[in-house]
Amino acid sequence: MQQSISEAMYYILLSLLQPAYGYEMMKGIKELSGGRIEMGPGTMYGIISRMKKDGLIEQGTMNNDDRRKIYLLTEEGKEVLVNEYKRLKLLVKDGECLEDLL
Amino acid sequence: MLGGFIMKYTYKFNYDYYLIGENEWFYEEMAKKGWILKKRGIFLSKFIRSEPCEMSYRVELAGKSGKLPKAQIALYEDCGWEMVTRMGDMYIFGALKDSGAPEFYGSTMERTVPYKHLISSTWKLILIDIVNMLIVFVFPFINVFRRGGGIGAILGNMGAYYTVDLVKSTALTLTLFLSYGFILLVMPIRLYKAVKLFRSFKNGEEIKRPKKKNLGKNIMMNGVLLLAVVFFLLSIVQFFNKSKYELTDGNHKPIISLAELNIEGESTPVREGEYSFIDDRIVEERALLSTFWELTESKMTDDGEVCLYQTVYYVKNKNLVKPFVEALKNDYSYCEEIQVQGVDKAFALNEEKFCIVKGQYVYWFKFWRGGDFIDIVEVLEKTEVFTDNGEYVEDLL
Q1: How many domains, in total, are found in chain A?
Q2: Is residue A92 part of a domain?
Q3: Domain assignment present for A1
């Protein structure tokens, strides 16, 4: 069974459904989370580096700019994202009984 | 002058590089006073004159890799930060306070990694320093243990050992002491502070900013390091500033030639064969506290080969002659003092190895295969030794 991933990792993978630059990812995450998650560039870069090592994302360059990297989801990354989504859906389903408490 | 704007710079002492809060606060305070950070060196930061403004500075440490990836810097720049300067693995970014540039990290817990590296590298440096010191300081100890003696003898011997070095290689000896001193005094302080920062970051505590400038300790630490660097450079100058000349060049004073001792014969070059590590030219070296000459000369006489090694020191400060001679005597503590007319002091290990002092000149001789102590004394008796001022100073001992 796949281990759960952190919230930050989940949003990073989610923001990469379309290839994006780091700064675009930051903005995308803020938008996706409705402003709830604002990731600093240091935090973001640290997580991206770890995920690259784990083979969840890969990087490339565009327009001959070797400083700015464009990031893409790998097949493994997509799989991890989808599995995490399924897991979260299950969690929510299992907790539906809590609706009455809201 | 650029468009009516006069460029002006100022330099200020830095906080140690890993003190993130202090550095950020310091550069922001300088910006408020109209000095914008331009460059940072080991000791000083360079600022350029500007209108007083509200700036934010953020320090990022690269840690083990020593370098921030270009992509990371580009990401910070896309977020509104500008990389102002870099020194080693320390990167400084700046942005106007109201620019909306986001904080690098959501929590200080994410900043612990470079501190882990800093702590382990500081430990390593301290350990290497201790091992180095043991190697360097073990020689005087070995000497004393070989002869037998207590703590007093060890300390006396160490004092003597380093007094000789201080007179002979002033700059290098001071570099050594200042470097060891710097590492042994400063590194534990750095270690303590780094561990403290690491723990506070691990607990997610905010980066503390100082309330007022307190650079006293840093200036003192940097001052020690700066002095060590200056003396190191001076020792390089001394090393490369050696003069070498042939004995036959004529003016070989204060070196005593075998010819002056009436030892005649064909010169046998000591560069080859048994004494190949020795230069057979006079080597003159100028240290801060002394000038000294070294020569190994050998001749093939009718009775066989005679070889004389000598070092002559001219001690520049007459007050140093006595401690230097005492140190030399202690350094070769098998030496017995001997009474000789015509010189100020003489002591000998045996008939072949001896030291003679006359005025501010200290002669150390070592004969191999032949040669006579008395001959040397006779020459030195007649030798007039002068100081730079042309006066011969007696009774220094």
Answers
A1: 1
A2: yes
A3: no
